Amino acid sequence: MELSIDRLTKQYQNKIAVDRISLRLNTGIYGLLGANGAGKTTLMRMVCGILKPTSGTITFDGIDVSEERYRSMLGYLPQDFGYYPEFTGEDFLLYMAALKGMRKPQARRKTVELLKLVSLHDVAKKKIKTYSGGMKQRLGIAQALLNQPKILVLDEPTAGLDPKERVRFRDLIKDLGKDSIVLLSTHIVSDIEHIADDILMMKSGQLIYQGKWTDKSGNLEEFYLKQFEEIE
């Protein structure tokens, strides 16, 4: 299983948002770090096929990002995820399953399974407007997992969560990284440090660091801040 990103570039008039990035990602969790404007969300949106690159390619086991087969293997939780406040959690997942083209029996089975996985089965019949921020984020993860994705892209999934929710969330993501490629972006360095198998660091559209981070590597937050001290 390999997600291949080859010399990927995205340019907007005079600004280069992503500058010739090449990556090979296999099963596991990849933590993407960078200051605002570093190009993280642009990179993730291209991996999801939402944005078209100016140049370069993205393939998964040889399947191009533009193909329907690629999208069928993808799960995505954007930074600003749109919810329907009057829907119940269960109705929302069934609706998203229908949009993904899933058959009703499979959609129902998967909805029950995922609500249990993200610990929302006890509030499945309650309206989303009654959910806390953490519950909405977990529902977002559940919708991203409906089609059993091989590639899971999570943009700022722990934003606004309290410490207890963040730990719960990290445990959930850690499990998902055993069978899929998880690309996770967040400003909370400790979340990345706890769960990522590999660290990716972006600055001004370029990849400035890629590698594993262990206790011997030192303090990740200090290293991160050093890279961006002129921005901070």
UniProtKB/TrEMBL annotation:
UniProt cross-references to InterPro entries, sorted A to Z: AAA+_ATPase, ABC_transporter-like_ATP-bd, ABC_transporter-like_CS, P-loop_NTPase
A Pfam family hit: ABC_tran
Enzyme Commission identifier(s): 3.6.3.-
Keyword entries, A-Z: ATP-binding, Hydrolase, Nucleotide-binding, Transport
SMART domains named among the record's database cross-references: AAA
Signal peptide (residue range): none
Molecular function via GO: ATP binding; ATP hydrolysis activity
Record-annotated ABC transporter domain positions: 3-229
Entry-linked Gene3D superfamilies: P-loop containing nucleotide triphosphate hydrolases
Coiled coil (residue ranges): none
PANTHER family: ABC TRANSPORTER, ATP-BINDING PROTEIN
Family the entry assigns: Belongs to the ABC transporter superfamily.
UniProt name for this protein: Putative ABC transporter ATP-binding protein YxlF
Organism the protein comes from: Blautia luti
